[in-house]
Design goal:
The protein is of the alpha+beta class and about 525 residues long. The protein has 17 helices and nine strands. The chain has an eight-stranded antiparallel barrel.
Length: about 525
């Protein structure tokens, strides 16, 4: 790692396979981390020092395109050259090859023992230029949490800079010296019980490139399913759950950097998808695992839900009325009340994320997914057969919800919408295992039905909320009545047509039985 005070590093050329867990830390908790009992009992490695890193690439960023990183690092009197290759980071945990050697002022890639990597670096060598720098103080502790386990904990605090722009950096890295990845998670969980730590899949290099390109963070939508027919149901669930976790993590991090409400929305989508995956794969999973994470995912999503509900109320219910130019003063005042309530709800959501309330559950889920075993289902169960049976069951439940909603009561229409959403998510999860074309068409119509039923639910919730806010104020009551009247024709059309449209899809030939 090129630690200050370790002159041996300067003399040897190393090729290593790092296994590490990266975590972000709220800077307000730095002293709390340093005083934590886990660190108080551990020796410091070397002396804390400033690390200056310069990352290189071609003007066309060809190394970035190959998911490679090349840097030089000044650590006290040492100057090192490091090459790192791509790795998948899951729940903050990654293992990737790296090659490190002394840097003499000219790049030398002769020790890179992957031929393709070495050839590309040699080819691009004449074009390499500095792209961005990282500058941070690193303190390192050597931890031995259990016999036979050795972990380095590195605390980095500083900044990333390029072209006159910079952003702060505060992260904790746990690097496995001996033991296995479960030991990293056990230590991280011990720390995260007391500290606002969160797993981080976006590396310093990725953040540096984003800063160099002037790219704002983007909300993360669900990844396309990557299931394969030869997976067991448990392995299929694990893959889906890790994808949900990545979406959860990415949007939690983005929400702390951006005011875009889409981050909170997509974070909640990730948690809803996790709950749907738990329900879909329930026969293959331990019962206590399903019960625990169904409850946790619901609770975590509900904590952040109020801000999103108010965003929707403004965008879908109030703004169309205000933009018509016909709204009365009561509508304007109601919009003001919603704006104020939304800002309070957003501040509360950000406080929850800054406090690290999602960090511990993220780490706990990642740790449990790595060791997850099957429940009562035979591990050799055929995944494609399992998929079709579960989709059949989801559609059966949706049919029951449809039959119960014929009276158009808001609660039962909402229950139908939830069942359609679970069917849609199930199809998305299992899409690689079933006929694609009819399933994609079916997904499109399910999304349209879900949108229609969602609007009906949003309108019903907004109507009740606006009446409550209006209270006995005549002007506000007039505004609430105007909004309800404005949307009444659209609501009537949807109520008249939606159940018939949904029925066509629920009783048509299932797409997973076609082809």
């Amino acid at each position: 790692m090129g630690l200050r005070g370790n002159p041996i590093t300067a003399q040897r050329h190393t090729r290593s396979q790092e296994t590490e867990l990266k975590l972000t830390l709220n800077p307000a908790a730095l002293e709390q981390l340093r005083a934590h009992p886990v660190l108080a009992r551990a020796p410091l490695v070397g002396t804390p020092g400033v690390l200056e890193n310069t990352y290189y690439d071609t003007p066309e960023l060809q190394l970035k395109g190959q998911r490679m990183a090349l840097r030089t690092r000044r650590d006290g009197d040492l100057l090192l050259q490091t090459v790192k290759c791509a790795s998948a980071s899951v729940g903050g945990l990654s293992a990737r090859p790296e090659w490190e050697k002394p840097f003499t002022g000219a790049f030398d890639f002769s020790d890179v023992d992957q031929a393709g990597v070495r050839q590309l670096l040699d080819k691009l060598k004449p074009e390499l230029v500095p792209v961005f720098t990282t500058h941070f103080e690193r303190s390192t502790w050597a931890l031995a949490p259990t016999p036979g386990v050795q972990i380095l904990l590195m605390l980095d605090q500083g900044s990333i800079a390029t072209q006159g722009r910079s952003q702060p950096l505060c992260e904790v890295e746990l690097e496995l010296v001996s033991g296995n990845p479960r030991d990293l998670y056990a230590l991280a969980l011990q720390l995260a019980r007391d500290l606002p730590l969160q797993p981080e899949d976006v590396r310093k290099a990725q953040r540096g490139y984003r800063l160099f390109l002037g790219q704002a963070p983007k909300s993360q939508r669900a990844r396309p399913s990557r299931l394969e027919a030869n997976m067991s149901p448990v392995d299929a669930f694990r893959q889906i759950a890790f994808d949900c976790l990545a979406q959860w993590q990415g949007n939690a991090s983005g929400a702390l950097e951006s005011e875009d409400p889409e981050f909170i929305h997509q974070l909640r989508v990730a948690l809803r998808r996790l709950r749907s995956a738990l329900g879909l794969f329930e026969p293959a999973l331990p019962a206590e695992f399903v019960e625990d994470w169904t409850t946790q995912a619901r609770t975590l999503a509900e904590e952040l839900g109020h801000a999103r509900d108010l965003d929707v109320m403004l965008a879908e219910i109030l703004n169309p009325v205000l933009e018509s130019g016909l709204a009365d003063q009561g509508c304007e005042r109601l919009a003001g009340l919603i704006h104020e309530a939304r800002e309070r709800a957003r501040a509360r959501a950000l406080q929850i994320l800054r406090q690290g309330r999602h960090g511990y559950p993220m780490l706990k889920l990642a740790a449990e997914l790595h060791t997850l075993d099957s429940g009562n289902l035979d591990k050799s169960a055929n995944l494609a057969t399992f998929a079709r049976l579960q989709l059949k069951e989801l559609r059966k439940k949706a049919r029951k919800r449809h039959a119960a909603a014929t009276g158009l009561e808001a609660e039962r229409l909402h229950a139908l919408r939830v069942s359609l959403k679970r069917l849609r998510y199930g199809l998305e999860f299992l899409l690689p295992l079933i006929p694609e074309k009819p399933s994609v068409r079916y997904l499109k119509t399910l999304a349209e039905h879900q949108d229609g039923l969602g609007w009906l639910n949003d309108e019903a919730q907004a109507r009740a909320q606006l009446r409550a806010w209006a209270g006995d104020d005549p002007e506000l009551r007039s505004g609430a009545a105007f909004v309800a009247g404005w949307h009444a024709p659209h609501m009537a059309r949807l109520q008249r047509d939606i159940l018939g449209q949904v029925a066509e899809d629920l009783w048509s030939k299932a797409p997973w039985r076609q082809g």
